[in-house]
Design brief:
By secondary structure, the chain is α/β, with parallel strands linked by helices. The protein contains 13 helices and 22 strands. It has two domains: 16-117 and 271-475, Aminopeptidase, CATH 3.40.630; 119-254, Aminopeptidase i, Domain 2, CATH 2.30.250.10. Helices cover 29% and strands 23% of the residues. Helix 8 (273-287) crosses helix 13 (460-475), helix 9 crosses helix 10 and helix 11 (397-410) crosses helix 13. The N and C termini lie far apart (51 Å).
């Protein structure tokens, strides 16, 4: 009988096995993972809008010694290796950087995520009354399943901007003593016609109006008394009038704090993982960069990704390019457009955005061999897009090899993954908008269950490995 050869260490290395990270993580990493996840839960619990995420990030940056780039320029100062600066755009988009030993012309190491999330916005003239109820008219933002947003507790976040420029911040529904809001749905007993519709048609966009009150104001001759009573309450607490809605940005988001999930507490259930989980991991990595890096290390937190990266605060705008120009102007004696183009072209970037996890409850939409799995590590995605890679920058094999080297050398647990089967659908990130400069870009982020739902599920180990991977990337010297 022919004997089966024994499996040696050499032959074992020929295969590549994707294993649960908790079977491979060291005790030191496990302890650090819990620390990072506690900090992340605190951040995401406070930062439920892109404005709040921006403000929380700025507070963390300033506490760590980062200075506003505009202050340096105003004072005529120059930036040197190790200096820490940030630059803001309209209180929504943010760039932060630690200057490296090499000149900017050699390129930057960039981790770029976004801080906007799918939600429901109030319209410009939202408050009305119908059948004894005060209601808020809405317009949803980003790709949501509308039926998921009815009957759950909701909170109101945002700002009123008065004609004199005064900003009035609003948060209702997060404190335990606060009231919450909701969107009603049909009872099953009367939903015969609704049941005949597709999931996408069951709740129309104009059917996402929010219940805001039901007590009428005093006064016999006053019309729309419930609406007026709501206006009185807003005026008493925030000093605003109905006209102030016209210069407001108010968002409806799920109420409540993020929670640990599972009996083993290995996951986090929260609103807005997409994409504040990667945005925070990148920001925290930059804050913890305790060396002067070889190349300038930069974290970019942008807005409007969920609706195509449009507008002045989206990545399709020139904020990043303008910020790089400002950095260059503060670090070189003779600024030139050619040097700027070289700096951008020589840069490396991790497009820090989430991916979908293989869900055993919906296996038919994924190709299992090329899917990411919960708590198997941060997910590296060479290409995204849809169907024939439409909308993808498709990173080079050479750059993929650089990322392998960086992560493996730093002990980062990572995996690869695609966003579903080839013809099932797909999605995109800001990667292609940065690749247009000629820089090397690859998608790298945390896998999620229930992406774009009011509450999304992420693994703690994946979150920690994203942080660890981003930190290694920012420190790396390309050798």
């Amino acid at each position: 009988m022919k004997k089966t050869p024994k499996k040696t260490a050499r032959t074992a290395d020929l295969s590549c096995e994707n294993k649960n990270g908790y079977e491979r993580i060291s005790p030191a990493d496990l302890k650090r993972s819990e620390e990072i996840n506690r900090l992340y839960m605190d951040f995401i619990g406070k930062a439920k809008t892109e404005r709040e995420a921006h403000d929380e990030a700025v507070a963390l940056l300033r506490a760590a010694g980062f200075a506003d780039m505009a202050e340096h320029e105003k004072n005529g100062g120059r930036l040197n290796p190790g200096d820490k600066v940030y630059r803001s755009c309209e209180g929504k988009t943010l760039l932060a950087a630690v200057l490296g030993k090499k000149p900017l012309e050699a390129g930057l190491h960039i981790v770029g995520g976004h801080t906007d999330s799918p939600r429901i916005d109030l319209k410009q003239n939202p408050l009305y009354e119908n059948s004894g109820l005060a209601l808020l008219d809405t317009h949803y933002y980003g790709g949501i399943k509308k039926y998921q947003w009815v009957t759950i507790p909701l909170a109101l976040h945002g700002v009123f901007i008065k004609p004199d420029g005064k900003k009035v911040a609003v948060t209702i529904g997060e404190d335990p003593s606060d009231p919450v809001f909701c969107i009603t749905d049909l009872l099953p007993h009367l939903a015969a016609d609704q049941y005949k519709k597709t999931i996408g048609e069951a709740i129309p966009g104009e059917g996402l109006d929010v219940v805001a009150g039901s007590i009428p104001a005093a006064g016999k001759d006053r019309k729309e008394k419930c609406k007026y009573n709501v206006l009185k309450l807003l005026s008493a607490k925030y000093g605003v009038t109905e006209a102030d809605f016209r210069s407001a940005e108010l968002e409806i988001v799920p109420a409540g704090r993020p929670r640990e999930a599972g009996l083993d507490r290995s996951m986090i259930l929260a609103y807005g993982h997409d994409d504040r989980v990667c945005a925070y991991a990148g920001l925290k990595a930059l804050l913890d960069l305790n060396v002067t890096p070889e190349y300038a290390s930069c974290v970019l937190l942008c807005d409007k990704e969920e609706i195509g990266s449009v507008g002045s605060t989206g990545m399709a705008a020139n904020f990043f390019e303008n910020s790089a120009a400002e950095l260059l102007n503060l670090t070189t004696a003779s600024y030139s457009e050619l040097v700027l183009k070289r700096a951008l072209s020589n840069s490396w970037m991790l497009s820090a955005d989430v991916n979908a996890l293989f869900d055993p409850l919906f296996p038919s939409v994924s190709e299992k061999r090329n899917s990411a799995f919960l708590n198997h590590g941060v997910c590296v995605t060479k290409y995204c897009g849809s169907r024939g890679k439409s909308g993808s920058s498709d990173a080079s094999a050479e750059f993929m090899a650089h990322i392998r080297r960086i992560f493996d050398r730093a002990g980062v647990l990572w995996q690869t993954g695609e966003l579903g089967k080839v013809d099932q659908g797909g999605g995109g990130t800001i990667a292609y908008l940065m690749a247009r400069y000629g820089m090397q870009v690859i998608d790298c982020g945390v896998g999620l269950f229930s992406m774009h739902a009011p509450m999304e599920l992420a693994g703690k180990l994946d979150i920690y490995m994203a942080y660890k991977g981003y930190l290694a990337f920012l420190k790396d010297g390309r050798k």
